[in-house]
Amino acid sequence: MAAPRRYAGGANGNRSLERGIDILRAFRPGVDTLGNGEIAERTGLPRSTVSRLTKTLVAFGMLDDIRAERGYRLAAAVLSFGHSVRMGSPVLNVLGPLMRAESTRRRLNVGLATADRTMMVYLESIRYNPRPTLRSIVAGQQVPMELTSLGRAYLAGIAEGDRAKLMVQFRRRSAAATRALIADIQTSIGSVRRDGYCAVSWQPGVLAVATPIAVDGLPVYALNMSMQDIEPTEALAAEIGAYLTAFADRCREALRADPADRSHPGRGGPRSAI
What we know:
Elements lengths: L14 H11 L10 H8 L3 H13 L3 E4 L4 E4 L1 H13 L1 H17 L2 E8 L2 E8 L15 E3 L4 H9 L2 H8 L7 H21 L2 E3 L5 E8 L7 E8 L5 H24 L17
Antiparallel strand pairs: 1-2, 3-4, 3-8, 4-5, 6-7, 7-8
Helix pairs in contact: 1-3, 2-3, 5-9, 6-8
């Protein structure tokens, strides 16, 4: 069962809204329908609270009530939010065409992501010469921050205080495993600071390198390039890393030259550390 969250409530927040968002977050890829009991287990909320809020979410079109399965499914309105993000994002409008051109030029997969709690969510994923595969990354998909090049590049790009808050959440079953993971993350952060990128192969036969994209007035993003069905090596990582860092410089210049997001200097995620 999930640990109960402490909700802000009061003048700085709305407890019902926060709990409703947590219910929507309980639906993950691979999960079709969830009943009130399963939602309560995933969120740590009382079942009576979940029952009340799921009825509200159904009434406002955020959940579909699947009575035959005695559960709920995310409704189409939720999907429309993602479409609005993609179509309305000034960052994607600027970087999307550059990413597509670079993917074709280098014959590599190119992705852009940012953080959602302790996960990284893809905003765009350009797959070079896609073919049927068990591993297909699409916009909106989440990957673990602590295990991936994207996540570790993001951690390297944010301020120390923000990074410390995230690091304490990367716990494993044993203290030794946790220490080993944190040491591995710190090595990746060191690689970003030294070489401009980090390389991680968290899936067999896949090599991914990533670098942070930090521009004043914007959230911190992570940009990656990857290859699959290969044997990851340090030499290959260095080659792709050189392509990536040069491309990332072009992306930063393009974002700085675009005024679309400069009118909201207070908007954004964690502060940049680099």
